[in-house]
């Protein structure tokens, strides 16, 4: 079984579902606190609460990324009697991860504008929180491509036929 199939199988597992939903829940809690961002930025107790929630969200997202990396590396054993992941289950995982990435971008910008990127209690956690955006976007793009395997195969097949016909374009000509 290749790495892509292993990752798909692992992401369909109950543990991965719990990790994904945990990350969604933690990011939602940060969003709930950030909804009152102006008040949070002025109240030290609220800033501390937000810092704790950011750290919790960071741990959840890191746990999810670790799960995916372990599956890619083959260190995550699969149950032998596991039923295949349905396309709907897999699409739900992709949609949830996409939601998390959009929320990270939105919340990071909102907190930066409120001055929490310069607050000693939240700056480190916020920077780490922002840093998860790109790896998650890459993961979502990869998983989306895996989910649409027929389209991906069609693109490569068309490229192969074009190359065989000599319909190749020098990249230096493209502006």
Care to describe what's here?
- The structure is a single chain.
- The chain has one domain.
- The chain contains eight helices and no strands.
- It has helices at 3-11, 14-34, 37-42, 44-73, 87-113, 123-131, 133-147, 149-165.
- Helix 2 packs parallel to helix 5 (87-113).
Helices and strands, with pairings:
Blueprint: H1 3-11, H2 14-34, H3 37-42, H4 44-73, H5 87-113, H6 123-131, H7 133-147, H8 149-165
Helix pairs in contact: 1-4, 2-4, 2-5, 4-6, 5-6, 5-7
Q: Oligomer, anyone?
A: single chain
Please give the radius of gyration in angstroms. Answer: 20 Å
Shape: globular
Termini separation: 41 Å
Helix-and-strand structural type: mainly alpha
SSE sequence, one letter per element: HHHHHHHH
Parts with pLDDT < 50 across at least 5 consecutive residues: none
Beta content comes to under 5%
* Domain count: 1
Total beta strands = 0
Q: Mean pLDDT, rounded to whole units? A: 82
Percent helix = over 70%
* Number of helical regions: 8
Which features characterize this protein?
175 residues; mainly alpha; 8 helices; globular
Brief summary:
The chain is built from eight helices and no strands. With 175 residues, the chain is mainly α.
């Amino acid at each position: 079984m290749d790495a892509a199939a292993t990752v798909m199988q692992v992401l369909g597992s109950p543990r991965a579902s719990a990790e994904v939903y945990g990350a969604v829940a933690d990011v939602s809690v940060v969003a709930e606190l950030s909804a009152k961002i102006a008040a949070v930025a002025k109240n030290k107790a609220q800033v501390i609460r937000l810092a704790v929630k950011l750290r919790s969200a960071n741990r959840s997202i890191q746990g999810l990324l670790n799960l995916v990396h372990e599956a890619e590396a083959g260190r995550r054993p699969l149950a032998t009697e596991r039923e295949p992941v349905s396309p709907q289950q897999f699409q739900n995982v992709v949609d949830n991860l996409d939601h998390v990435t959009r929320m990270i971008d939105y919340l990071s910008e909102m907190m930066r504008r409120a001055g929490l990127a310069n607050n000693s209690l939240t700056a480190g956690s916020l920077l780490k929180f922002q840093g998860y955006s790109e790896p998650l976007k890459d993961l979502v793009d990869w998983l989306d491509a895996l989910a649409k395997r027929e389209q991906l195969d069609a693109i490569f097949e068309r490229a192969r036929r074009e190359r065989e016909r000599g319909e190749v374009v020098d990249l230096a000509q493209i502006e």
